[in-house]
UniProtKB/TrEMBL annotation, chains A, B:
<feature type="domain" description="Coenzyme F420:L-glutamate ligase-like">
    <location>
        <begin position="12"/>
        <end position="201"/>
    </location>
</feature>
<keyword id="KW-0342">GTP-binding</keyword>
<protein>
    <recommendedName>
        <fullName>Coenzyme F420:L-glutamate ligase-like domain-containing protein</fullName>
    </recommendedName>
</protein>
<keyword id="KW-0547">Nucleotide-binding</keyword>
<keyword id="KW-0464">Manganese</keyword>
<keyword id="KW-0630">Potassium</keyword>
<dbReference type="Pfam" id="PF01996">
    <property type="entry name" value="F420_ligase"/>
</dbReference>
<dbReference type="InterPro" id="IPR002847">
    <property type="entry name" value="F420-0_gamma-glut_ligase-dom"/>
</dbReference>
<dbReference type="InterPro" id="IPR008225">
    <property type="entry name" value="F420-0_g-glutamyl_ligase"/>
</dbReference>
<keyword id="KW-0479">Metal-binding</keyword>
<keyword id="KW-0436">Ligase</keyword>
<keyword id="KW-0460">Magnesium</keyword>
Length: 320, 320
């Protein structure tokens, strides 16, 4: 039997900038070796003085690395931590009216600070997760995810492991830090007053003293490696711009065969293979289709290069 | 103090088509009113005879409603349940070699069957979640989500609720059924042998006897309402096709002002407002830009209509 227990103490004091979170945690929770402490980013931010006067809209530009999708009032951005969130994760709940709270500047560092503090003062070896609430593609509602972590395995790597039938496991990377954050949210809730939860029963995920692990940053898919790094509308706008200064791709470049098929299918032109090592293709393209060809080529992680012949262009993978 | 307990019993028997899952659950788990039983879809599928001989690739076309993104060997599709998953959720782990398992045909119905069966035989009122493992946009790794549910609140609706400071809550819909599935995965694991978990401590989420609730289908964002319903590359290909037979939009139509700004910005043309009630715009478009304008218009949820003037087109919202 596998057994987990999640407890979230009531009655946490109001946290102010500069407060000693380690002391507050020790006051409220009883911790044992192998526990995972899940702390909402809200309370970490408050202790770290990340409250600001103003609105989410005013704070958004400073928190935004790039816009992912925009629709009416909704702005989904990738923030400086690499997190894709509505309004960059800036929140205005459970803070005084007229104020907002920014995410911790480095939530993995915040988690390390808590882990080290707890270890120094009590000798107890706990993993720490800093959680925040995020929407998802494809599904309604939000779940809590790990935006910071220290001293825990954030994803269990089963690559190459086999099940009882001898099959290699198809799902190889359960993101357990996110599941811990979501499980903790079931105990802490959204109405304030329970910013901490302790998960007991997965001591196997907690790293030895002195090891912090890869942190929650390891759960962020690198920009340019994501197939959903732009909203569908934004992807089209981006590809159709005559010059895309920002070379961040929509995932890895397509194979020459894939691009060739797309060019035939979408703009009705037939590329020829040059035999070059980088897979370069040649296309004769009427002027009227040049923008569409360029957009299509860009979307496949390739670039259009001019040649000496006015209507002939060479297509090459962007990395080439 | 809020307290949750999650237990996953070891040593479940191998489930065969036609097996009585209710009896197996009762044999393994001790249930109380207000518990949530989380069952992996795998074991539900096995009991429902959803095993097939063959490979995931062979079964994929039958399970696919439409392709969302494709990259090399990876195929992310929306399946007939509306779930966006790699390989449509077809799995080949924890099944005999050479076989695959399809998702339950109607996981909400499977969940209702379990809930009703447990109620009938023991009088116990439990919520039921059928879980499966899914990748996410933007984040590495996978988490378990709820693909079926009965007798539980799948998302807590806090719309209009206020925090202790009087702020309206910005995050209004915690997807608790997904968090329950993820929490259960921490206890059941991926190596087989623990297909059931019981979550105790959120009886407030369990509905009264006789009520099944909206089911996990309520967590599926409707097709055409999702900003990430297509991979970035696929969105470009789709918009650039001269004729898009499939009118499924990339979210709600843009406002006339938004589309007008995009047309100016991307193709350098200046639309004029017609004053029509549907916000229709007129654009004079050289032939060479027509395909780009059409793609851009489509991406904004609008359509291009010809007029009596050869180079003039009228743009109208698709719904209009």
């Amino acid at each position: 039997m596998s057994r987990l227990e999640i407890t979230a103490p009531d009655g946490a004091p109001e946290v102010e900038p500069g407060d000693d979170l380690v002391a507050i945690v020790l006051l409220m929770a009883s911790l044992a070796d192998g526990d995972v402490l899940v702390v909402t980013s809200k309370v970490v931010s408050k202790a770290e003085g990340r409250l600001r006067t103003g609105t989410r809209e005013e704070a958004l530009p400073g928190e935004t690395a790039r816009v992912v999708a925009r629709r009416g009032e909704t702005m989904i951005v990738r923030n400086h931590l690499g997190l894709t969130m509505a309004a960059a994760g800036i929140d205005n709940s459970n803070v005084p009216q007229g104020q907002i709270v920014l995410l911790p500047e480095d939530p993995d560092a915040s988690a390390r600070g808590l882990r080290d503090g707890l270890l120094d003062r009590t000798g107890v070896n706990v993993g720490v997760v800093v959680s925040d609430t995020a929407g998802r593609a494809w599904r309604e509602g939000q779940t809590d995810i790990a935006i910071g972590a220290a001293g825990i395995v954030v994803a269990e790597d089963f690559a190459g492991r086999r099940d009882g039938y001898g099959n290699e496991l198809a799902v190889t990377l359960p993101a357990v830090a996110d599941e811990l954050a979501g499980a903790a949210e079931l105990a802490t809730g959204k109405l304030g007053g329970r910013p901490f939860a302790v998960v007991r029963g997965r001591a196997d995920l907690v790293l030895p003293r002195g090891e912090h692990g890869r942190g929650a940053a390891a759960l962020v898919r690198p920009d340019g490696a994501d197939l959903f790094g732009y909203g569908a509308r934004e992807a089209v706008v981006r590809a159709l711009r005559a010059e895309v200064a920002d070379q961040r791709p929509f995932g890895a470049p397509a194979s020459p065969t894939e691009l060739s098929a797309a060019v035939r299918d979408v703009v009705g032109l037939v590329p020829s293979h040059t035999g070059a090592a980088d897979g370069a293709l040649l296309v004769t393209c009427p002027r009227g289709l040049m923008r569409a060809l360029t957009a299509l080529t860009f979307a496949h992680g390739w670039m259009v290069h001019t040649t000496d012949h006015p209507n002939e262009v060479r297509l090459r993978p962007s990395s080439g």
